[in-house]
Specification:
InterPro entries: DUF5133. It comes from Streptomyces misionensis. This is DUF5133 domain-containing protein. The protein has helices spanning 6-25, 29-46, 51-61. It has one domain. By secondary structure, the protein is mainly alpha-helical. It is globular and about 35 Å long. The protein contains three helices and no strands. Helix 1 (6-25) runs antiparallel to helix 2, helix 1 crosses helix 3 and helix 2 (29-46) packs across helix 3 (51-61). It is 65% helix and 0% strand.
């Protein structure tokens, strides 16, 4: 399976987290649609089926991540 470059994953994670905050504050359909689009892209880029698993997988591929460190699971 092809994996996205860590820089791409970092960007997607940052976008998703920002959009999640905006959606919590605003709740507009546009923000929700963009959040869904980024979640889908994260899933494709990480080979997962849901955004929570995609975020965990992406974070584990980022520089400085330690595979044995489960603290990423609660992030």
């Amino acid at each position: 399976m092809l994996m996205a470059h860590p820089a791409v994953l970092k960007n997607l994670v940052e976008q998703y987290e920002t959009l999640r905050i905006l959606h919590a504050e605003d709740g507009s359909p546009e923000v929700r649609q963009r959040m869904d689009d980024v979640a889908y892209t994260l899933c494709v880029a990480t080979g997962t089926r849901d955004v929570d698993a995609a975020l965990i997988a992406a974070r584990h591929r980022l520089p400085g991540a330690r595979p044995q460190d489960d603290s990423l699971l609660s992030a």
